[in-house]
Each structure stands twice: as C-alpha cells, then as structure tokens.
Here is the input.
Amino acid sequence: SFLSVQGYYFCSALLLFFLFFGTASCYLFIRREDSLGRMLAVRGRGAVSQTLSEYGAYCVLTGLCYLTISAVLMAVSAGAGLTLPELEGAGAAGQIRVLFSMALLIPAVSALQYFLCQMVRSLVSGVLLSFCCVVGLGYLSGCFYPLSFFPPAVQEISAWLPTGLLMEYLQRILTGDSVGMLPVLLMLWVLLFVGVSVGVKKFRLAH
Here is the structure.
C-alpha cells in the first residue's frame, strides 16, 4: 500500500529516536573493569546469565520509554485531532494495534545497542561508536532520505541491515501490508547480537 510522507517521517523519527536513546544509555553497560562480573561469575552467574540479565533489563527500560511515547502520541492525537493518513478512521483501538505491533523494535534496537556497548571499555568510545553506527545505519536504511533516492546496490544492502529491516517492518505495519519474514529476520539479528555479546563477556571474565 501507499505510504504517505507523514507516515514515512513518523517511522523514521520513531526508529531514530530509539536508536539515539540507546546512544544516551551507553553509560549503563560500559565498564572499565570487570570486577563485578567476576564476582558474579564466582557465585554462579556466568557470562550467559549476566548478558541475558543486562539485555533483559535494557529491554524493560526501552519498553517503558516506548509505552510513554505511545501514550503521549495517543493523547496528542485525541486532544488535537491529529493523525496519520494511514490511521484515519482507525480510532483508538486501531492506533493501539499499530503501536503494539511496532513494539518489535524494542528487542531489536536494544540488542544492537547492547552489542555496541560490549565492544568498548571507555564511555567516550562507546558514545562515539554508537553515534556513528546510528547515523550510518540510519542513513543507509532510509531514515533520512527514502531508499528510492539511493542506488540499487545501497537498497540491496539496506534490505539486510537490522535497521533497514526495522524501517521496512514499521512501514508495512503502518500501511497494513504483510510483514512476511521480517520478524524472523529481525529475531535472527537479535540472536546474533546477544550471542556475540555473550562471547565478549566470556572473554573479558576469563582475562
């Protein structure tokens, strides 16, 4: 289905907001030393347990932020009578359904940002890495300009990037099109990010 200009900017703004939210949250997971992790490992909480606990906590934090943003958007829509062309006539129930379906971005964005945080030990390096990745991935995924402006090669690359998959997923949810295999591909990216994070955590605890 046709995606309106307003719908495009809504999807891109929503995705970019939570990507940059992750950049602002780097301080939660970046540590110069791993004494706490080693102490937990001695008590039976190994790399897998620590990674899943931290990632799960970050998903909860991102989810709470998403709920807040959703409530604000619905309040503004109801109070000012503003809505997207794709949601005209859908009512509150339709808006809730769309926002609930879009919540898949929570585990996907959380996994990406958590993975980036595990790659560095310095907070400054983590913020720079996250910011550069967010800007680069956002650009290649069509968050700043529609993908139709890019060469076919860039469009092919975007179709497999986690942010590109998320952008496509959000747009299809908004237009009511079938999402196909997009949720499965996104969950594969989540498993990859979390799995690599577990490996990095194991290496740091051992050294």
Remarks:
- The chain has a mean pLDDT of 89.
- The CA atoms of residues 37 and 45 lie 8 Å apart.
